[in-house]
């Protein structure tokens, strides 16, 4: 097994070739905030919360999609990174319509968690207040596009774990949104098996169980990793 | 030492933040010993915001002309302004009308006073008495500089106390961690 050796926040770490900086940080016990990353599905680098600095390059690198290379010297908590991470979270809040007080995920939301983590007490950017809708056509679930942060965890989980590929991203730039099927009402998409994996995967209150009250929603970020290892390694307990 | 001149202001909010303030229970008695309440919808019956206020909690977003005028006035007359609750910090529920676009005053009034009226539908019209709605609702810090942000809908009494106590000792509270800055 080829191995790369690198330094993360002063810790020396050896990691299998092909693994990412995020994997290496995990191995070294260095926490890096993430939103779009989810164990069990492939990484896309959508949220940019996991940015780190590598000595010798002026670019900030997304840890979840950057391969750990031999000799890298990585910093994960510099002032610059903390500043940019906070800005990123402020922009995510400003971009959608996050009215936490009337959200099913209030108190159980990964976006709220990272806001606290990066020390965001207000947004320096003006809120956009886009005109977005809700789709309640599915008999059990619903999607509220106002709370979607375009992490695409639902898209990846439905495609890669459930194999149904109900979700996709439609449109571009500030107008992009999550579509069911060929931009149909979710309830009309035959491919949906109603497995609920996208509900578990969603870090915010965007995809939810109908009728669920605030506080009842519990994201299960580890479920997809469990399901993939269960299949690949036949480990059926956690 | 002179007592701290303390005020609270209620802009476009539901008064829930003020209710949470009243939830301070017996700490209110300690507080009363340390501050002079010089302006507050729940503590005084004064209509004019006084000069030289040391600390002021501002509840609610900026939704109408009166909110706007009062915001500018309290900034001129206050040393430490605290954005009090999600409506002040993010514009929160009052700002949901902003999703209708850039000119939301009219459709909102139309819905409230014409479409939903059981009888006698008409717009409230008393110039100089009923303040005009602004086209868009804004968080307070987009109108005036704010010194301390205290999110929460409402912030819990514990959070309010943890913010006020250091201020009373002339220190700046540390607004970090879930207990102090979680929204919602
Ligand atoms: S999804 Fe999270 S951040 Fe967005 S409104 Fe709901 S609780 Fe707030
Ligand atoms: S619906 Fe949820 S899981 Fe899907 S992209 Fe939006 S926030 Fe992410
Ligand atoms: S933040 Fe919540 S409790 Fe406070 S005024 Fe606004 S809606 Fe009411
Ligand atoms: S977790 Fe790496 S970009 Fe989102």
TrEMBL record, chain A:
Domain (4Fe-4S His(Cys)3-ligated-type): residue spans on this chain: 80-119
Protein name: Bidirectional hydrogenase complex protein HoxU
Residue stretches making up the 2Fe-2S ferredoxin-type domain: 1-80
UniProt cofactor(s): [2Fe-2S] cluster; [4Fe-4S] cluster
InterPro entries assigned to the protein according to its UniProt record, in alphabetical order: 2Fe-2S_ferredoxin-like_sf, 2Fe-2S_ferredoxin-type, 4Fe4S_Fe-S-bd, 4Fe4S_Fe_S_CS, NAD-red_Hydgase_HoxS_gsu, NADH_UbQ_OxRdtase_ferredoxin, NADH_UbQ_OxRdtase_Gsu_4Fe4S-bd, PSI_iron-sulfur_center
4Fe-4S ferredoxin-type domain residues: 139-170, 183-212
Record-level GO cellular component terms: membrane
Species for this entry: Leptolyngbya iicbica LK
Alphabetic keyword roster: 2Fe-2S, 4Fe-4S, Homeobox, Iron, Iron-sulfur, Membrane, Metal-binding, NAD, Translocase
PROSITE patterns the UniProt entry points to: 2FE2S_FER_2, 4FE4S_FER_1, 4FE4S_FER_2, 4FE4S_HC3
Single annotated GO MF: 2 iron, 2 sulfur cluster binding
Superkingdom in the source lineage: Bacteria
Main localization, broad class: membrane
Family: Belongs to the complex I 75 kDa subunit family.
Localization per Swiss-Prot or TrEMBL: Membrane
Cell inner membrane recorded as keyword: no
SMART domains assigned to the protein according to its UniProt record, in alphabetical order: NADH-G_4Fe-4S_3
Automatic annotation (TrEMBL), chain B:
Xref: InterPro entries: Hydrogenase_assoc-protein, NADH_UbQ_OxRdtase-like_20kDa, NiFe_Hase_small_N_sf
UniProt-listed SUPFAM superfamilies: HydA/Nqo6-like
Domain annotation NADH:ubiquinone oxidoreductase-like 20kDa subunit: ranges: 14-165
Keywords annotated in UniProt: Oxidoreductase
GO molecular function, a single term: iron-sulfur cluster binding
Top-level taxon of the source organism: Bacteria
Matching PANTHER family: COENZYME F420-REDUCING HYDROGENASE, GAMMA SUBUNIT, HYDROGENASE SMALL SUBUNIT
Protein name according to UniProt: Oxidoreductase
Species this protein is from: Leptolyngbya iicbica LK
The organism's taxonomic lineage, starting at the top: Bacteria, Bacillati, Cyanobacteriota, Cyanophyceae, Leptolyngbyales
